[in-house]
Amino acid sequence: MHDGTEPIYALWDKLANYPVCDGDEALEHLLCSLCSIFGAHNALWSVVVRLPSPALGDALNGWRPLFVRLLRPLPPMAASVQEQFDSLWSPSVDLSQILAVAGEEPFRTQLLFEALPPEWFSGPHYQRHYLAIGHADSMSMRCAINDDVRVHLFIFRSTEAPRFSSADKNPFGLALRGLRWFYRQQLLSHGLLIANAPLTATERRVLLGLLEGKAEKAIAAILGQSPNTTHIHVKSIYAKFGVHNRAALTSLWLGRLPEAR
């Protein structure tokens, strides 16, 4: 459970000290810390984007997850997440999924038992995607990065733990509302927000090497590529971000946008 604001301040300080090339480790630290502070046993991070041309009558108004990360991806939980992801493209969208994307608030926190009607908890979605995998309750945060990109974060409590309450919700919101810079940094590492197109998995590994200050030959050796292949990836990264060199690329992480494309 939370104990005042000191753990929250410590979390902010720790995240601020991570170099940009350690974004994955920083995200894991955030999720682990939230579980520790709020007595949760697992956490999920998701980047949700709005499709440019959603189908007529789309219950989710075009919103779909692009990246999903489970803190502890145990097989039953990973299977549940995959099932839910697949269901988003079918007509059988659950009420909880609709409410998760509804509204236009720039920042929002919710308690599961506050957001859903009582009858939902005796329905198949709660039974399958909560109780069957050891979850009984969740608390969530949604932050709009821009009109078409949002970050969603959930923490879960087990069937043995008490429900989340407003005593948890308020400090949870405090902990996460001041981290918009962190969410932006996470999205930049995937090529969102500024890049013309999302980075491939290999481009992202090359990008992190560039931000760490490694030479192209060193990045090639780490990834088991030829220097020429790595150079091609570097050029592609620069093109996607609309920059011409490493200095301009790095400046994006300092909050500067590239000049005219």
From TrEMBL:
Per the record, the GO terms for biological process are: regulation of DNA-templated transcription
Q: Which domain of life is it from?
A: Bacteria
Keywords assigned: DNA-binding, Transcription, Transcription regulation
Q: Which GO terms describe its molecular function?
A: DNA binding
Q: Where are the transmembrane segments?
A: none
Location of the HTH luxR-type domain: 192-257
- Keyword Isomerase in record: no
Entry keyword annotation includes Cell membrane: no
Q: What is the name of the protein in this document?
A: DNA-binding CsgD family transcriptional regulator
